[in-house]
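Late entry, evening session. Most of the bench is empty. Finally got around to the prediction I had been postponing all week. Sequence below, unchanged from the version circulated by S.P.
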Amino acid sequence: MPLAATTALMLAASGCGTAGTSAGSDDGKVTVTVFDAYAGEEPHGKYISEYADAFMAANPDITIQVTTIASNDIFAKLAAMATDPSSIPTLYFTSGDQAPSLYSMGFTQDLNSIIDENTKNTFAPGVAEGATLDSAMAFYPVAVQPLGMLYRTDRFADAGIETPTTWEEFLPAAKKLTTSDGDQPISGFGMIGSNNSSGQSRFLSYLWSNCLSVVEEDASGTWTTDVDSKEFLDALTYWTNLNEPEHVVPDGITSVDYPTAANYFSMGYTSTMMTGGNALGVAYAANPELKGKIGSFPIPGACPGSQLNAEGYAMSANASDEQKEAALKYLDFFVSNDTDLNFWQSSGKIPATTEGQAAEYLQGDDYAGLLETINKGTVPVINFPGMAAVKTALGNAYASVFSGEATNEEAAKKLKADIDQILSENN
């Protein structure tokens, strides 16, 4: 690979690169800038640079500049760039829950206008739809991350527990699994209770599994909410009761974010965890002895508890035609260059393509519940531009109860007022 290309990638990955959409130098080379959440994650982040290096070696006229940025920070970073759209990177990581807000701000290129049908046909059923808002394909999906419940099959077997299909069945199972190993407490449920996107998304999935919509568009095109219902208050109370008085989740629950919860599960400090396949990648990397001891089942409840959660890369609508062409070429390369699917296997993610989803590594108990979630049907993409604000309001509600600042009734009342305000701004 040309030294200049390697240097550009290294500088951008360290935060020194240029994030904007400049088409490149006078020598005809095209620069594609990327905000990449994957690049900073372990153990799969290394493949981002490996794939970019391999692509640049095969395409010396294109430079890929990767800037590492946390997934939870991307929306705020891009929103801050709204006053100067030319500074928005050519490509940026996004997912089904983040994309509606970015799409509503006019940041995303509709890929339908530049992607060919052969590429679309490689995606597994439902994946292209999971990346589509209105009729626009808002991002290029590389993986899907349906949420399910990971569990320790050995501990369930030892305790004589069947995998629960309802939340009523889940609580006694979690209580039975809440024990200790010497001085080390073991929690039945590795809840993510942090008030950030990871915690908020899981709480939202839990609400969906209880057949609550949270926000929904009615026949007249008006957005409505059901968080003022008794069913919502009951669901909120059940969720917060898992902390107190039930004590089936880790102590200091508001500090348990996704990395902490994944670490707890891999170390055996918890026996179940609501998550996508990414936690499998973390668990196996940290504790290879867990191979053969992890299974998955769909989120309990009468209704689907997860979106398909397609994730990948959106393309800036402000990129030049040359950059868009080069970026699409890079994305096609990304999903097809590695027949061993090292990025997906090491991350625990499920490929977005039909061929990828037939891979041997997905055929065990560990992915069974996640694939069942896909096959049974998931929550459709909610094209509500205020969804990020709704998630923040949900997080504030459960966090206020966990911290003792509010009762469930008080938190629900405040949440209704917050969501009413969000709806009024978007109806």
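Two things to note before I forget:
The first strand starts at residue 30 and ends at 36.
The chain has two domains: 3-145+308-369, 148-306+386-426.
Will write this up properly tomorrow.
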